[in-house]
Structure formats: structure tokens, C-alpha cells
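Hi R.,

Here's the chain you asked about this morning:
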Amino acid sequence: MSQWKDDALISESFIGEEKDDNQDKDVEETVVSDDDLIDYSVKPEFYDPNLDDKDQLWIQKKRKGQYSDAVLSCPACFTTLCLECQRHEKYVTQYRAVFVVNCKMKKGRVVSDEGSLKRKRVRKEESKSFTSVCCSVCETEVGVIDDDEVYHFFNVLPSEP
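And here is the predicted structure, written out as C-alpha cells:
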């Protein structure tokens, strides 16, 4: 009789394992891939083929028809700093502007332009002082602002307007 119990227990364990294997196969068959979940008949929500045209209209509205030599960006984080600027005639990597965005002045950081001895004799009272200007996002120094509130950029990335 004990042999019969042993045989019964062995057969029940085999049947239980077969059921588990069948359930695993069912689970494997019901796995859905990512491709099956994507509905390709609907356009992606983050794609807009007219986005460049919309951006161009926005920038034209901001400039109000005025011309700029370049659009200036921060060299560290690529944040836009200026939409309207004028390139320096002699130093082609320097720009000046009156209207800027994403810029802040560094307090306590003043640079003075004493000039050469020849200029000192001619214009003693016209000594200019400059305050350092940095990107408001990453705090990288990008230029200076003078007493006339004109920004002079020398550490920027220019791009075509």
C-alpha cells in the first residue's frame, strides 16, 4: 500500500509541474511587445512640421523688423542672451547690444578702463567703468556692461539671425 501512495504522490507532482509549465507558456504567449502598443496611425504629439515657420514668425515679431548681426547664446548652456546686436568692426568675436535676455550683472565685479597714457592726457575725465555680466542660468561670464548701459559681449556663441 505504501508503494501505491508513493506512486500517487509522484504522479500528482508531475501533473502539478505540467500545469505550471502550461501556465508559464500561456503567460509567455500573452506578452505584448512595445511595437504592438504603438499606434502608428496617429501622429506623434511632439512633432510639428510647421514649428520652424512658427519660430521664425515669433522672432520677427520680437525684433519688430530690425536687423541683427547675430543671435547670441551662452557658450556653456546655450541659453539665448541677445536677439539684436551689432558686431564690433575691429574685433569680430565681440558684439554690443542694448536689449538682452537671460543676463544678470555680477555685483561687486567692476572693471575700469583707464586707457593708455596718450588717452589719459587727452580725456582725463572720460574714464569708463564696466560691470561684469553673466548668464542668469549657469552664471558663466559672457561680457560687461558700461556706464551708458550698453552690453559688450566677448564670451558668446553667435549664430545666424
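One quick note: The two ends are 95 Å apart (CA to CA).

Cheers,
M.
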